[in-house]
Structure formats: structure tokens, C-alpha cells
Write a structure and sequence with these properties.
Helices cover 54% and strands 0% of the residues. It has 125 residues and is mainly α. It has two domains: 41 residues; 49 residues.
């Protein structure tokens, strides 16, 4: 992931362009890419700000979080339901998510699907 350059540097590039330098000249003077100088000037003109946009983070869990009550009801009804079964039930509701997404949903809530001794089959003699 590219590093985030300081707002101070971004503002100095903008000020240099506002003072009459071209974007290319300002980029060369401050040692940044020409495309960065162009984007910063565009952001300055559109928003009046050159701050970096947020990077990383979760952008998709809202789809499964909207199904939280449904999923929690499912594991109350059937405690031994598998993640694949939950995934299929979500798909039937029109929510296509991966098994990993379902697993992370339950991990955030501290719910695990580990086997326990009470559910083990009796071994044959």
C-alpha cells in the first residue's frame, strides 16, 4: 500500500501551484509524483481540502450485519448448524457471502462452532 504523504506537503504543493507554478513544476520541486500533484489540486478545487482518504478497513460487513438477527435466530434454533448451511440460508435470502464472512461475523460476537464431548458419537466396541 502506498504511504500517505503529510497534509503539510500536500498544502505546500497546492500553494506553489496557486502561486503560479505548473503542477509538474510543483511536483518536481517537492519530490512527489505529477499525478499526485494533479489529484491534490483537483481535490483542493472540488472540496477545498487535500487530506488523504481513509485506507483499509472493513467496507463490506454491513451486508452480513444487516442479517444479524436472522443468523442469531438460526443458531438458537439449531445450535449445531454448520457455516455452509448458514451460507446457503443467506443465499436463499439473496445475500451472497463467503463462508469466511459468516465465520468472521460469529467471531466478532465470540461465538464458536467447536465440537464438544457431548456431541461426539459413541465409538463402536
Amino acid at each position: 500500500m502506498p504511504r500517505i504523504l503529510s497534509n503539510d506537503l500536500r498544502l505546500r504543493v497546492v500553494e506553489a501551484v496557486e502561486a503560479g507554478a505548473s503542477r509538474r513544476q510543483a511536483a518536481a520541486r517537492f519530490g512527489v509524483g505529477v499525478s499526485s500533484a494533479i489529484r491534490w489540486m483537483q481535490a483542493w478545487r472540488e472540496r477545498g481540502d487535500v487530506a488523504a482518504k481513509p485506507q483499509g478497513g472493513d467496507r463490506h460487513s454491513h451486508r452480513i450485519e444487516a442479517q444479524a438477527s436472522f443468523l442469531l435466530r438460526q443458531i438458537e434454533r439449531t445450535p449445531d448448524v454448520t457455516l455452509a448451511e448458514l451460507q446457503a440460508k443467506l443465499r436463499a435470502r439473496g445475500v451472497a457471502v463467503g463462508i469466511g464472512t459468516v465465520w468472521r461475523f460469529f467471531e466478532r460476537r465470540g461465538i464458536s462452532f467447536k465440537k464438544n464431548r457431548a456431541r461426539r458419537r459413541a465409538k463402536s466396541a
